[in-house]
Amino acid sequence: MELKLNGRIWVETEGGPTLGPGRIELLERIQQSGSIRQAAMQMGMSYRQAWQLIDHMNTHLKAPVVISHRGGKGGGWAEVTPAGLEVIQEFKLLYQKFHEFLAQTGLGLHF
Question: Where is the HTH lysR-type domain (predicted)?
Answer without folding.
Answer: 24-84
